[in-house]
Amino acid sequence: MSQARPVTIAFDVMGADHGAAEVVRGAAQLTLDSPNIHALLVGDRAQIDEALATIRHNAERVAVHHTSEWVAMHEKPAAALDDKPQASVLLAAKLVKEGEADAMVSAGNTGAGVLACAKSFTLIPGVRRAALATVYPTAVGRGEKNDPFSLILDVGATVDASAADLVAFAVMGTAYARIISRNKDPSVALLSNGTEAQKGPPRVVEAHEKLKGMAGLRFIGNIEGVDIPKGTADVVVCDGFVGNVCLKMLEGVSETVMELAKYAYKEKLLWRAALAMLSGGIERIKEVTDWEQYGGAPILGFNRLFIKAHGRSKARAITNAGKVAAKAVGNDLAMTIEKLLPGRGSS
Amino acid sequence: MSQARPVTIAFDVMGADHGAAEVVRGAAQLTLDSPNIHALLVGDRAQIDEALATIRHNAERVAVHHTSEWVAMHEKPAAALDDKPQASVLLAAKLVKEGEADAMVSAGNTGAGVLACAKSFTLIPGVRRAALATVYPTAVGRGEKNDPFSLILDVGATVDASAADLVAFAVMGTAYARIISRNKDPSVALLSNGTEAQKGPPRVVEAHEKLKGMAGLRFIGNIEGVDIPKGTADVVVCDGFVGNVCLKMLEGVSETVMELAKYAYKEKLLWRAALAMLSGGIERIKEVTDWEQYGGAPILGFNRLFIKAHGRSKARAITNAGKVAAKAVGNDLAMTIEKLLPGRGSS
After folding, report:
1. pTM value?
2. Alpha carbon distance A240, A51 (integer Å)
């Protein structure tokens, strides 16, 4: 379980909202924070060198792989990758495939990142479909650090998941929570429209049946929508369609609750004064709920890890994503997942 | 479009959280508020008479249909209805079927209510599956009364909806919003994991294609989870599985935001003071977000309307549910839906 052996993280530094410099800044900080992590920066060399010139970093553990192509945030992923065979995200994945790096991080176009993984990485034996996972804020804390976050997957990679896919997602989430959140025995639940085993569409009912008897993970049964914000389970499993809708709903929620609050308060001076006093606190809520800052969203199911940091990531979030990726590599996430999976080759 | 002709609403008065008296109180108020509405109270006569003896009502427009059986909130719907052929919710549906009443309202067991409808009512020609709809609070207002609510359906009746079912739900929601919210041209959207037409599982992509060319409704395309609290569409269409998860997530959300707020504020006295000042306001948010008070959840798709009021409904919510039911009857909701549906018999 030691992280002492050197780990190289490939950073796709292009196409993020705050520009290449911000991603380079996060990667540079990582080489100062973690003595065993090397950063391989993939992108436009001029921009990278310009950024590095003004940023403290450990030059012995920073390398640059130049390319002049990249995918912008607004581009259609498949078409963009076809047009740009030297796109930074494609090269980063290829460098990982070829063993030049152990995992990759990008704050660029999500779809392009997932496609780049699919092109260069292979699925773990027993896994049919990849999943995009993310942490989200909950009312209760969990794990060694008592973090008020749960993991939910899939949130958009596989919109039409079968029962076997849902089972694999449960395994991936368990392995990830165990390694990254230092949560030794994470509880895992299926998201459904009722807690009873027979609730939900056929794929969910069948997945429940399969998970019930599985060794190596702590399946606590079905949970309902109300349990998501509560944080009833450490790992929430659903198909990418439902997960994406839920995640985006959470994103819109704190904003809307404040709108509703204003609607309710508009006639009362006392309440208005209280809201003004709280404005700093509201900012703080935003911070707490801006869970993308907490290490990014892993694409799980491949033999190599890709951490998708949010497009808006600041340097600190990039550094965290790199640390998470290194931790996953150091603890052999892919092998942990493979060992937990039920009989391989079953669909 | 006149509501002047007499309408009779059958109230299943049994099995609600606050007891028969609270439901009777709501129905009694309706006979005072609305000169054209008759209330047919179905349940235990002793309890009904005891309640009526202490409540103002228009005795000429209140009738009682006695039964000593009913379904409790915790009972399994199908088994309970098998055991109790004289259950109040079954009798209420039967009385509607036989023309003794025009629509029904219940604050009891939801599943039993839906099953009772399925046993006594028939689906509107062209509709294959029923949908449970509900209003939920949004950031923006809509309709003649500028209500900050959108309609979402299905939220649990049909967990596995086909493309044709989703199209029918769009029609039902449009007709309902038009009649009940006096929103002449409600916008209707499909819930998906992206706004593009090709996003989502096959059933959603196919439904998008069908809705795009449809006359009689204003389809604005796909919306994402973030648009639910924002209120981007007047009518949100999804299958009962996704809708149920979303609805229950919304239920848990205001509570959890307050939890997170406490987590963020715990170190700051100023914030703590502000929260104390807001405690009355927080109650008010709860009121605004307790959207079950706003007329209940209609089961749409049958030739007769069933309004499911929340189990916790107070008399005012029951009165409102009765008014909504009468409005739907007076404006012939079922016929409005039937006329809007695409080529009948297509699946």
Report:
1. 0.84
2. 37
Contacts of B335 (CB under 8 A, 6+ apart): none
Instruction: State the pLDDT confidence band at A331, using cuts at 50, 70 and 90.
Output: very high
DSSP B223-249: E-TTHHHHT--SEEE--HHHHHHHHHH
Asked whether the beta carbons of B269 and B257 are under 8 A apart, the reply is: no
Closest CA to B132 of B299, B296, B310: B299
**C-alpha atoms less than 13 angstroms from C-alpha of A287 in its C-beta half-sphere:** 10
DSSP single-letter state for residue B341: S
SS (H, E, C) B274-305: HHHHCHHHHHHHHHHHCHHHCCCEEEECECCE
Nearest Cα residue to B169 out of B127, B138, B205, B136: B127
Q: A270 vs B261: CB contact, 8 Å cut-off?
A: no
* Average pLDDT of every residue of chain B: 87
How is residue B159 written in tokens? 């967990």
* ipTM, two decimals: 0.81
Smallest Cα distance from A76 to chain B, Å: 11
What is the tens place of the pLDDT at every residue in B95-122?
999 999 999 999 999 889 999 999 999 9
Contacts of B306 (CB under 8 A, 6+ apart): B93, B103, B104, B105, B106, B113, B114, B116, B117, B121, B298, B299
A contact test, residue of B248, B251, B286, B291 with most A CBs within 10 A: B248
Output DSSP code: residue A34: -
pLDDT category of residue A281 using cuts at 50, 70 and 90: low
Instruction: Please report the domains of chain B, with CATH numbers, ordered by start residue.
Output: 1-126+301-332 (3.40.718.10)
B:124-143 residues touching chain A, CB 8 A cutoff:
137-139
Task: Give per-residue pLDDT as tens, B218-253.
Answer: 999 999 998 888 889 999 999 999 999 988 887 776
pLDDT in tens, A142-153: 767 777 778 999
Q: Residue A115 in contact with residue A86, Cβ under 8 Å?
A: no
